[in-house]
Design a protein that fits this description.
The protein has 470 residues and is mainly alpha-helical. It has two domains: 1-202, no CATH class; 214-470, no CATH class. Helix content is 83%, strand content 0%. It is globular, with a radius of gyration of 22 Å. The mean pLDDT is 83.
Length: 470
């Protein structure tokens, strides 16, 4: 029988694959069905709301998972978290709505914030049920919770496209409907699977204690939220909505390329939390798992860059392919560093090294913001990508410098070996062989050969990885 970890990984992977495919449908229909200005404004509004609602969580989402995984009563954690999202969410939207009394709503960004913000408020209210399900390792119902909104959106947008009535206004209606449906389904599924009552109550001492526990993580959330979409907001306000449309398209595909990381990341928090409760940790297993992640990350760089221009220009009628070639190349170089950072962050989070994590994010944020301010006015989208890459590398250096596990001290050699093999494969094939689909095949084969030569890929790795999951 498959072990629990493998079943959870399978459920989470299926959810991510489906969600990413639905997200791709949504993004494709909007990017091709709306003009660049409307598409850019929509993405700017979504970026601002994403940052806002992430800030409102104050880091309690991750602390809730850790508490439940550590054995705290799930019902009490859920009750406190529900109180928090209702309080902060309603206050935020009341302020947003109050601002509409002072701002003309005929057109522009603010009406988008007000309308789409209503849907995102529903998503925010559903967060406690998702996090509690994650802490309880109920990944099958969690998968359905995470998929439903995109399913409603994609189906609605397909219908609108077929009826030739896709517009910014009809898109907003579909987005709100999908978000509201997700909230309703989250409540239903959680009550059905967790079999615990959903109650609300004010417990002052317990809530303050939760906020204190989340305080270091709150700083992390403040930084990561701003870091996640600062470049979008900066481009949207200081360059143009059209350039933001181009950058957001490349960035969205870049995010989707990290699907394997998204599949395993939610499973590592409860797993590592239990693992580091033990007195001895098998660092060799951790190194092997991380090296496997780095191989996947580097392979993603090869495939995405080799197929980018010929595929994207065809499916978007030349709108987002060639214009983003340099941007996507720079962004994909971040992928191995993101895998490393997530892995080390999860270890440090499981060890409750929150102040150190906060320091790392502050440094990363400052590097990204300073470089965005300097580079975006000069190099526009490519400048934003360079700034993000530099910030990601700085974060990796900081995390590695704080590592206390002897088995992971030299993992940076594996990272740069995998990255070198990927970039060399791309450059050689693009210069001396073919591009397009044939080039992708040649580059992939060359990449695998280089991995074998540099001993990053070994015959015994498969059995060792299976042993870890068993």
């Amino acid at each position: 029988m498959k072990n629990k970890l493998l079943r959870n990984l399978s459920a989470n992977t299926v959810q991510l694959v489906v969600n990413q495919l639905l997200g791709l449908v949504i993004f494709y229909l909007l990017s091709t069905g709306l003009d660049k200005t409307n598409f850019g404004q929509l993405n700017l509004a979504l970026a601002i709301l994403l940052v806002s609602f992430n800030l409102l969580s104050l880091g309690i989402d991750q602390v809730a998972i850790r508490r439940i995984a550590s054995g705290h009563p799930p019902q009490s954690v859920l009750q406190l978290y529900l109180f928090h999202v209702l309080l902060t969410g309603l206050l935020f939207y009341a302020l947003l709505f109050g601002g509409s009394l002072l701002i003309k709503l005929q057109s522009g960004l603010y009406p988008l914030l007000l309308l789409i913000g209503l849907g995102k408020l529903m998503i925010y209210f559903s967060t406690p049920f998702k996090q509690a399900s994650s802490g309880l390792e109920q990944f099958k119902p969690l998968a359905v919770m995470l998929v439903i909104s995109n399913l409603v959106r994609s189906a609605g947008l397909v219908v609108l496209t077929l009826l030739h009535v896709l517009s910014l206004q009809t898109t907003i209606i579909i987005f709100i409907a999908g978000d509201a449906f997700e909230l309703a389904l989250c409540i239903y599924l959680f009550k059905k699977t967790a079999k615990m009552p959903i109650t609300f109550g004010w417990h002052k001492a317990a809530y303050i204690q939760l906020l204190r526990e989340a305080l270091p993580q709150t700083g992390v959330v403040l930084i990561t939220s701003a870091l996640a979409r600062f470049d979008w907001i900066f481009i949207g306000f200081l360059v143009s909505a059209a350039k933001l449309a181009e950058y957001s398209f490349a960035y969205k595909v870049f995010e989707m390329a990290t699907l394997p990381l998204l599949a395993i990341a939610p499973l590592l928090i409860p797993w590592f939390t239990r693992l580091f409760k033990q007195q001895q940790v098998n660092a060799s297993n951790l190194k092997l798992l991380l090296r496997a992640e780095l191989l996947v990350a580097a392979f993603t760089i090869v495939v995405l860059n080799m197929l980018w221009a010929p595929v994207v220009d065809v499916v978007t009628a030349g709108k987002y392919g060639a214009v983003n070639t340099h941007t996507i190349f720079i962004l994909t170089l971040c992928i191995p560093f993101l895998y490393l950072n997530n892995f080390l962050w999860t270890i440090y989070f499981a060890q409750s090294r929150m102040k150190m994590i906060l320091t790392g994010f502050i440094i990363t944020f400052l590097v990204n913001v300073v470089l965005d301010i300097v580079l975006i006015p000069i190099y526009k989208n490519e400048g934003a990508a360079i700034a993000f890459l530099a910030a990601t590398i700085v974060q990796s250096i900081f995390y590695l410098s704080k590592n206390a596990l002897p088995g992971l001290t030299a993992i940076w050699l594996n990272l740069f070996a995998c990255l070198f093999c990927a970039v060399l494969s791309i450059l050689l094939v693009q210069k001396y062989f073919a591009g397009g689909y044939a080039g992708a095949v040649f580059a992939s084969i060359l990449f695998l050969l280089l991995l074998v030569v540099t001993t990053q890929l070994r015959p015994a790795d498969y059995k060792a990885i299976r042993k870890i999951f068993n």
